[in-house]
Design goal:
Length: 121
Amino acid sequence: MKLRIDSATGHSPYEQVRSQLAAQINNGELPVGTKLPTVRKLAADIGIAPNTVARAYRELEAAGLLDTRGRAGTFVGAGGDHSRSQAAEAAADYVHTVDGLGISREDALAIVRAALQSQPR
């Protein structure tokens, strides 16, 4: 697991931890069942506050990507296996919506690009 916090990005440390972990889970770098470091250990390793790591872990758990098992620790959950299919389903729904609105595919793609660029990772 490799995480890097970059203060020059303009994104909060919480969001950087959350998005980097989500990416590593979704691309298979962190397979289902992998045990993650404790909140305090990860915070110390990357030089941020424990509450920041705890928030990222909570958000990832809510998304189904992590599974916290009390004293046993935090593990990569099976939800990561379904993230891409959920994203594909959402994309198909978007295509259906823009087609119904009469928006061209080119304009629909521009809308998505603008939304992706305007939202922090």
